[in-house]
């Protein structure tokens, strides 16, 4: 198949590119960074240098391909003037227009756990918006992949652990939050591209389902703090801490909303009703080795 991937050579798209090239597909990777061209070609793929916010470029790149993997780049992290949900809406509309004009029939969309909710999920609301934009496209085979929480988000707790000896957020303790590795997401995308479907499908992707205290225990043992705890703090304290660490106010508010939804059980409720039949291969104990290396390297 001729397949186009968005996401440049990120945590998912890079291993996905290698998987698909090894399977014999003709792969084109979209990247806004011209310096990635050599690295993309080194993997055996073609590079399409341009922005997913350029509709003409998108349509031209998608014309004549069999399938496309879509993700919305987190540009709002680098530009505080961008409103995250509106950025998702804008890119989602551009994706839909390009798919329609180019005539692509197989679409894999990277969404998120929590995308079933129409409010109270902060930035994740953007995934809800894009899902609803894409589902209006006629005549395509569409998979919304909803990965659970990314393991690498746990790196954000390293500074707090070093300073206070605890993990702290406005969710935690006995809350059960499913986690996932980008490698398992990439494998799920490749699997979906090899699967014939009709209409629209939602697929959750998860690697492991520990409670937050279990996560703290595994990570703590790996870094030499076996009694590490994951405590729950008030929403207001979480908001202040995020802003003090440099997170823009709107982005911080969105993260606090997500965490509060996790703590209430709303964020994960649809996941637990539709758990994947097969879990990914990378478990929390596997990730703990990478976490320990980052922890001991951090100042």
Brief write-up:
Helices cover 43% and strands 15% of the residues.
Descriptive account of the structure:
It contains twelve helices and eleven strands. By secondary structure, it is α/β, with parallel strands linked by helices. The radius of gyration is 19 Å and the shape is globular. A seven-stranded parallel sheet has the order 3-2-1-4-5-6-10, with helices on both faces. The chain has a two-stranded parallel sheet with strand order 7-9. Strands 8-11 form a two-stranded parallel ribbon. The chain has helices at residues 13-22, 37-42, 55-62, 84-102, 125-134, 158-164, 182-193, 212-223, 235-244, 249-264, 269-273, 284-297; strands at residues 2-5, 26-31, 46-49, 67-70, 106-110, 141-147, 149-150, 167-169, 179-180, 200-205, 230-232.
Draw up the topology in text:
Elements (H helix, E strand, L loop, with lengths): L1 E4 L7 H10 L3 E6 L5 H6 L3 E4 L5 H8 L4 E4 L13 H19 L3 E5 L14 H10 L6 E7 L1 E2 L7 H7 L2 E3 L9 E2 L1 H12 L6 E6 L6 H12 L6 E3 L2 H10 L4 H16 L4 H5 L10 H14 L2
Parallel strand pairs: 1-2, 1-4, 2-3, 4-5, 5-6, 6-10, 7-9, 8-11
